[in-house]
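lol forgot to send this yesterday, sorry. struct tokens for the thing we talked abt
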């Protein structure tokens, strides 16, 4: 079993960013020391009033704290980015992390972000697809010429290429069938979002593997699956402590239009929603559910979100330590 940490590094308006950063660094070190093998950091822009550090510089700060852990964005809003810059920033981070970088990317879904970045949302699939092609070439070729719909490179010679050879792994996120098929064709793995129910993960995992076989690609390794996870001293403690922060978190997702995070009667149906999406309970409950889920979907790589705005640092660290006992 491989267990990693997933975080969006977010904070509420009344929190101090300096304290948030110190807490995050402590969480990462705690995860590393408790056997976590990977770290993904989410990305959003214009996320106010919710505070959020930007992912690329934050990874540079955390590289030493996460020494030995695979690390990357989760997910990078690639459809809004310049792929030449992404390729060289990623290569730089690969060296800073000792050859442990992974590019986890996605389309993005928030209208506000596309507007702020000056990108037409209708072009997001084409921009991501073309961007990935350019990134792969800049990572592996001495000189790149590309004349595409969205990007043009003439005799482009990358200033830095990754430490990993032939290139770092690429994971693509997405929670609709088209995005899963795209991940199968263009990436090394499908990154499963925490907003996808356990039942749908199983269904879409089969689609991912079937698509790779259909286009003649080799069988992929285990796909990483992101889950909200809180292991408490007892089952009641776990649910009591995590309920408020998770309600706030998924209320924000719903307001942003995130697929699978429907507001509606979410608060009154929290227990049903949590059972279909989250890993919450005591150690035995979570271990049993995780084992069952792993066997069903054929993946043993899980990225746990262990902290949400409003959760006390002591509870987050204790949660990490308990999750570490699953390894």
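and heres what i got for the seq, position by position
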């Amino acid at each position: 079993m491989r267990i990693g940490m997933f975080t969006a590094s977010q904070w509420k308006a009344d929190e101090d960013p300096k304290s948030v950063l110190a807490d995050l660094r402590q969480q990462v070190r705690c995860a590393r020391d408790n056997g976590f093998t990977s770290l993904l950091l989410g990305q959003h822009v214009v996320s106010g009033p919710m505070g959020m550090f930007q992912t690329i510089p934050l990874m540079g700060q955390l590289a030493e704290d996460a020494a030995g852990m695979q690390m990357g964005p989760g997910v990078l809003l690639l459809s809004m980015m310049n792929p030449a810059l992404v390729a060289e920033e990623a290569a730089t981070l690969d060296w800073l992390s000792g050859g442990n970088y992974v590019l986890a990317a996605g389309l993005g879904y928030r209208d506000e972000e596309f507007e702020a970045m000056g990108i037409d949302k209708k072009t997001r699939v084409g921009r991501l697809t073309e961007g990935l092609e350019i990134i792969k070439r800049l990572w592996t070729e001495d000189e790149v010429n590309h004349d595409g719909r969205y990007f043009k490179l003439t005799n482009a010679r990358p200033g830095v290429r990754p430490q990993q050879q032939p290139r770092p792994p690429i994971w693509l996120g997405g929670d609709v069938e088209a995005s899963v098929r795209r991940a199968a064709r263009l990436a090394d793995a499908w990154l499963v979002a925490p907003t996808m129910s356990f039942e749908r993960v199983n269904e879409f995992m089969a689609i991912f593997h079937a698509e790779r076989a259909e286009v003649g690609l080799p069988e992929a390794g285990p796909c990483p699956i992101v889950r909200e996870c809180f292991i408490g001293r007892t089952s009641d403690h776990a649910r009591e402590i995590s309920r408020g922060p998770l309600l706030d978190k998924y209320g924000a997702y719903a307001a942003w239009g995130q697929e699978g995070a429907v507001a509606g009667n979410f608060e009154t149906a929290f227990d049903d929603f949590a059972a279909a999406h989250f890993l919450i309970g005591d150690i035995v409950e979570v271990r049993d559910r995780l084992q069952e889920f792993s066997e069903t979907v054929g993946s043993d790589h899980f990225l746990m979100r262990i902290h949400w705005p409003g959760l006390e640092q002591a509870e987050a660290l204790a949660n990490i330590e308990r999750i570490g006992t699953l390894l």
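The first helix runs from residue 17 to 33. anyway ping me if u want another try
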